[in-house]
Design goal:
Elements lengths: L1 H28 L9 H10 L12 H17 L17 H21 L3 H31 L5 H10 L6 H18 L18 H4 L5 H26 L8 H25 L8 H22 L2
Helix pairs in contact: 1-9, 1-10, 2-9, 3-4, 3-9, 4-5, 5-6, 5-7, 5-11, 7-9, 7-11, 9-10
Length: 306
């Protein structure tokens, strides 16, 4: 149980570092002077020292929503697959629970954007709802497909089963599910080509549009939620689609897990450097590919057994 709590705290502490690593790597690949890998911690401490300024048009929702955006994501951390085979984990949580908690956080974020009574907030909330409506069914199908290959609907137990008995006989279904989940990881975290987390251009903003009116501690909570959300998706990808290293000694297993997280961050950075942001009406085409691959994974598993 101590290792279980320690890993949750470690993932919370590592989450700003991972996003800073992505930004640093992107700047390096674009021949710019890279930021410090610890920039995420500096930004968080700077936001804590700033004043909270709230628009007169807002209601109590703006004061409550930042906590409600972060809370479901913190709860989701307790339901992730184990990092080591000897670690405690929650075995009864399935794809619907994890997707529902992430969607609940997104709902409160959209509510926060609407409460500001600004045109940009409404624009961002509308676009976020549009993207989430396509992401959620694909995510449920993908996690369900992987759970079926692992012979257990519980996501935690599925990750453990995959590490012990990798489904080589279902490699085609496994690859389809992996492609689908990586697209969802990019889309749900507002990365290029779906969204650009570093832009403040009004016509292209999605996530940033919903938090334009926030400052200080409230903005620090939202930024923390964004980094933890990326860590959740990266952890799920590392545990379900890179299921190795769990049988190693605890310290080595944790080290392998961290390396897998940074490898996923490396892939995201490479993707962002080599692709351009899609126009909004083309985003459904990309997310449609994720839905198709998730269906293909299930159909290939059930019909062909491959």
């Amino acid at each position: 149980m101590i290792l279980y709590i320690a890993m949750i705290l470690l993932m919370i502490l590592l989450s700003p570092l991972v996003l800073s690593f992505i930004k640093m790597l992107k700047m390096f690949l674009l021949y710019k002077k890279p930021i410090s890998i610890f920039q995420g911690y500096r930004d968080f401490s700077k936001l804590l020292s700033k004043e909270i300024i709230i628009s007169k048009e807002t209601s109590q929702i703006t004061h409550i929503a930042p906590y409600l955006v972060l809370s479901p994501l913190l709860l989701t951390l307790f339901f992730l697959p184990p990092v080591s085979s000897g670690e405690y984990y929650v075995s009864f949580v399935d794809a619907f629970t994890i997707t529902g908690l992430i969607s609940l956080s997104t709902f409160f974020l959209m509510l926060l954007g609407l409460d500001s009574a600004s045109s940009f907030g409404g624009l961002g909330s509308s676009r976020e709802a549009f993207i989430s409506a396509l992401v959620e069914p694909a995510m449920i199908l993908t996690l369900f497909s992987v759970s079926m290959m692992a012979n257990n609907l519980g996501v935690g137990q599925a990750g453990l089963n995959l590490s012990k008995h990798f489904p080589y006989e279902h490699m085609a279904s496994f690859i389809f599910a992996g492609i689908s989940f990586f697209i969802l990881l990019v889309a749900e975290n507002g990365r290029i080509p779906v969204d650009n987390p570093e832009t403040h251009l009004e016509l292209t903003m999605v996530h940033e549009a919903m938090i334009l009116d926030l400052s200080g501690f409230y903005l620090a909570l939202i930024e923390s939620a964004s980094s933890i959300k990326f860590m959740i998706f990266a952890s799920l990808f590392a545990s379900l689609f890179l299921p190795f290293g769990l049988d190693l000694p605890v310290v080595l297993a944790i080290g392998v897990f961290i390396l897998k997280i940074f490898f996923i961050a490396f892939l995201v950075a490479i993707l962002e450097v080599n692709t351009a942001k899609l126009r909004l009406f083309k985003v459904p085409n990309l997310l449609g590919i994720a839905i198709v691959f998730s269906f293909l994974s299930l159909i290939t598993f059930y019909v062909l057994g491959a």
